[in-house]
Amino acid sequence: ASFGFRTVALGEKQGMVDHVFHQVASRYDLMNDLMSGGLHRLWKDAMVSWLAPPRKSRRTWRLLDVAGGTGDIATRVVESGERLEATVCDINNSMLTVGRDRAAMRGHAHDIRFAQGNAESLPFPDNHFDAYTIAFGIRNVPRIQVALDEAFRVLKRGGRFMCLEFTQVDVPVLDRIYDLYSFNVIPRMGQAVTGDGDSYQYLVESIRKFPNQARFAHMIEKAGFSRVDYRNLTGGIAAIHSGWKI
Ligand code: SAM
Predict the structure, then answer these.
(1) Which CATH superfamily is domain 5-245 in?
(2) Which of ligand 1's atoms lies nearest the C-alpha of 44?
(3) What gap in Å lies between CA 208 and CA 201, rounded to an integer?
(4) Which residues participate in S-adenosyl-L-methionine binding (predicted)?
(5) Measured between alpha carbons, how far is 151 from 225 in angstroms, rounded to an integer?
(6) ipTM of the complex model
(7) Structure pTM?
(8) What is the pLDDT of residue 10?
(9) How far is ligand 1, taken at its centre, from the CA of residue 169, in Å?
């Protein structure tokens, strides 16, 4: 189905996003590799290395990975040290099912939990987690500022917020190539692999609407975070934002 993606009201957006990820869940990991040429793996590694979870924590250190999908960030984090636990929270059960199976296969039945929930109203108590991550998820959330407020609420004092997201490319020539690639190649690849080109067309368009790095940093500050900073990856195709609840 085509949804006329360009003129979507806030209330309808979540329904469309859910449709997209139900459609693609079983092929999601494969598509990530194909579309990014494997780069998403390096970007996720960069996020986890900047987050730097403790190698040997004296108490259990808790990560909440929101819009965690099939659990890429959670897996990297729990495998980076001892006494690390992750909760993957995603609105979409199809994505969580793929993630749960994968985690069990990799021996993470006990240190990674999967919970269905909305980034705009997280089903977790205040001041609970040591870190909150969201990778390629926040641009799908209809009210970004509400999601940032929720991130602040569920983090402990001293807790860290980190977001990995596609951004606006500002390198000459690369931006043109990137445009061509994303508007022509990605929807076709999506159609070929998942049979649903529209869903990938939507994903590409949602990247264009996302605030630039400086504006997004300002939104993170508005939610209450301190020492907000960001790093560009691969010429700014993606960026990592970081902030602290102090
Ligand atoms: N973090 C994973 C990764 O990097 O591979 C998955 C990213 S995937 C592009 C986006 C995820 O956001 C999907 O699994 C989707 O179901 C989830 N999502 C969309 N809207 C959401 C919301 N309001 N709350 C929580 N998750 C949401």
Answers:
(1) Vaccinia Virus protein VP39 (3.40.50.150)
(2) 4
(3) 11
(4) 70, 90, 118-119
(5) 10
(6) 0.99
(7) 0.89
(8) 64
(9) 22
